[in-house]
Amino acid sequence: MLYFWIGLGICLGLAILAVFLWCQNNVISKTCCIYEKDGADREITLVHLSDLHGKSFGKDNCKLVKEVSALNPDIIAITGDIIHKYTPKDKRVALRLVSELSALCPVVYVAGNHEMRNKGYRFFRRDLKEAGAVVLDDCAQDICGLTLVGLNCASQKNGKINKITPQQTVAGRLKILLAHKPHLCENYKGLGYDLILSGHAHGGQWRIPFTNQGIFAPGQGMFPKLTSGMHTVGESKLIISRGLGNSQCPVRLFNRPEIVLVKIVPKK
Ligand SMILES: [Fe+2]
After folding, report:
1. What is the whole-number distance in angstroms between the Cα of residue 17 and the centre of ligand 1?
2. Per-residue pLDDT for 165 more than 90?
3. β-strand partners of 175
4. CATH top-level class for 2-266?
5. Burial label, 38 (beta-carbon count in 10 A; 0-12, 13-18, 19+)
């Protein structure tokens, strides 16, 4: 009888652990960042998504689309690594998601390191455009009363930002940079960006509970500083998404998948 109760206890413990880990990796959390802008004439709701890595929340990402739709966004910004590899499955998931999101509002996208890995990016970029995304591939575009600039992952180090940053924008118009890797943000100081949106760090993969501290991030090593939330970089605010999917580390811990809601409001 004792063995029965021990066996039952172990089974119950494993079941609770399995449910806990499933929730940690599949229940989406939402983070709201408020950005006040001098001279802005209206409130704008921007939804920031990053690092899906081919993951699907429900069939065809229906849960993710529903969560985003409920936020009533004016614009959606995707900051790279929407695929993990150029597999048919990852591409199908990504293109279907972009197509669904594009039905809600304009979707802007910049490539991460996983898209830039090989020449498959050329064709994927074309497919993303056909699915409805505005691909900001080292270029700027005015959308929704915002000036959006996308610096693809391969260009983040080489000074290309100076060539694509618009010299002037309309007074009061927000200038937003999409660039996948947050740890290179020092390169964008003094260029007049109000906001910089990044991902890549996956929140540090595992986070120490109650501390907001991640364990590891590519490009930053152990106990990285730039893995989530809003940071000040010169005159800009850097907003980092903890991302939605996984890369090398297959399990998130105390670091649930994240949608970042950026509310841009006129300064009072
Ligand atoms: Fe990633």
Report:
1. 25
2. no
3. 147
4. alpha beta
5. exposed
Which residues sit with Cβ closer than 5 angstroms to ligand 1, an ion?
51, 81, 247
- Give residue 200 CA to ligand 1 midpoint distance, Å: 4
* Cβ neighbours of 68 (radius 10 Å): 23
Task: Count the neighbouring beta carbons within 10 Å of the beta carbon of residue 129.
Answer: 14
CA of 181 to the centre of ligand 1 (A): 9
First to last CA, the chain: 70
For ligand 1, the distance from its centroid to the CA atom of residue 12, given in whole angstroms, is 34
For helices 62-70 and 88-102, what crossing angle results, to 10°?
30
For residue 193, what pLDDT is reported?
94
Q: How far is 19 from 218, CA to CA, in rounded Å?
A: 28
Q: What is the pLDDT of residues 57-91, one digit of tens each?
A: 999 999 999 999 999 999 999 999 999 999 999 99
Domain map (residue ranges) of the chain = 2-266
Other Cβ atoms less than 10 A from the Cβ of 35: the count is 19
175 Cβ neighbours under 8 A, 6+ residues apart? 146, 147, 149, 166, 169, 192, 193, 194, 195
pLDDT in tens, 111-125: 999 999 888 999 999
**Crossing angle of helices 88-102 and 120-131, rounded to 10°:** 30
Q: What is the mean predicted confidence (pLDDT) over 222-231?
A: 97
Contacts of residue 126, defined as CB under 8 A and 6 or more positions apart, other chains included, come to: none
Q: What span, in angstroms and rounded, lies between the C-alpha atoms of 229 and 244?
A: 15
